[in-house]
Specification:
alpha/beta, 235 residues, Nucleotidyltransferase, domain 5, globular, five-stranded mixed sheet
Amino acid sequence: MRQIVLDTETTGMPVERGHRIIEIGAVEIINRTLTGRQFHYYIHPERAIDEGAQAVHGISLDDLAGKPKFAAIADELIEFLRGGELIAHNAAFDVGFLDAEFARLPEGPKTRSLAVVTDTLAMARERYPGQRNSLDALCKRLGVDNAHRNLHGALLDAELLADVYFAMTSGQTDLGLAVAVESEASGRARRIAFDPAQLRVIAAGDADLAAHRAWIERLRAASGGRSLWPEESPA
């Protein structure tokens, strides 16, 4: 499975007031592994940056002098997103700005026609109802180191969000079972045949059990000691 964790910085908000993207950062994940492939651009917005927004990300219009306009990087972005799963925190914000930028292009696509969209903010609200679920709050809760995050930055935030996503979905595994997937990106469902007799069962070794115990301790710390997960599964 190919996933793209993405974040944007903008001139302000809301998008309906003509605000523009000034930075896009994205990292690629394949089979729950960061591949090292990234998409990152600073973009000249062709308009002023609100003072409040600049206080958040620290990017001034002078910093963007000579940077490409969105149209110049659009084709590369489209190909980077195409056919994947787009993961973003408060995805409606990022998708709204991407759609507004694409709409300024001749025959520009909709983001959801390129990729399935997953919102980690919605995931976090379901998992941690009534709690703060900002990226910083999730990093603290899940033990993701964000000490170097003094200002918002699209690429840094995408990298942090990838770690948060891994932590929030650590119990999910792909066993290669029969799957039918339908999305706006694929346009049709495809069933994969699977023979259960081919499933290999691998017992956990000492290193696996030690890693499991370490993860449980981090989970207990992150949950304030409320984790009910046993340290080891019964033999």
